[in-house]
């Protein structure tokens, strides 16, 4: 009797296991803060983060959308798919390391993720110091 390996097609349909991601943790810590998000279609959104979910999809409130031609539009609420995001601007007033540590202390489900994130945070701080941004 022959034992067959599962085909690649069968394994494609298995649900992906999500590993903790430091960037996701950072973005979730921005809930309640006003941020600017550049989109791949050259539009820009500025609003208060209401929610960030696993696929890095955002919900923003009190949003100002700036189109590529410079036209602006005020919106009460916007859902942004993570795959459309080009860049998230971190507010200048935020020290990333301290901000994440405070967030993890307040959010019990993230305590184990902070250990994974610490080396990345140290590297980011070194880069920001080198660039004069910290």
Automatic annotation (TrEMBL):
InterPro entries: LSM_dom_sf (IPR010920), Sm (IPR047575), Sm_dom_euk/arc (IPR001163), U7_snRNA_Sm-like (IPR052840). SMART domains: Sm. Residues 22-94 form the Sm domain. One of its GO terms (cellular component) is nuclear body. Gene3D superfamilies: 2.30.30.100. It holds the Pfam family LSM. Signal peptide: none annotated. One of its GO terms (molecular function) is histone pre-mRNA DCP binding. GO terms for biological process: mRNA 3'-end processing by stem-loop binding and cleavage. This is Sm domain-containing protein. The lineage of its organism: Eukaryota, Sar, Stramenopiles, Oomycota, Peronosporomycetes.
């Amino acid at each position: 009797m022959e034992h067959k390996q599962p085909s690649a097609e069968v394994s494609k349909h298995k649900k992906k296991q999500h590993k903790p991601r430091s960037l996701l943790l950072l973005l979730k810590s921005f809930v309640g803060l006003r941020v600017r998000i550049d989109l791949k279609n050259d539009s820009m959104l500025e609003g208060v983060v209401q929610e960030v979910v696993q696929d890095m999809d955002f919900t923003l409130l009190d949003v100002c959308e700036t189109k590529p031609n410079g036209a602006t539009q005020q919106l009460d609420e916007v859902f942004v798919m993570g795959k459309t995001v080009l860049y998230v601007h971190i507010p200048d007033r935020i020290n990333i390391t301290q901000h994440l540590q405070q967030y993890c202390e307040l959010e019990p489900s993230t305590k184990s993720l902070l250990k994974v994130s610490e080396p990345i945070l140290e590297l980011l701080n070194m880069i920001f110091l080198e660039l004069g941004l910290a």
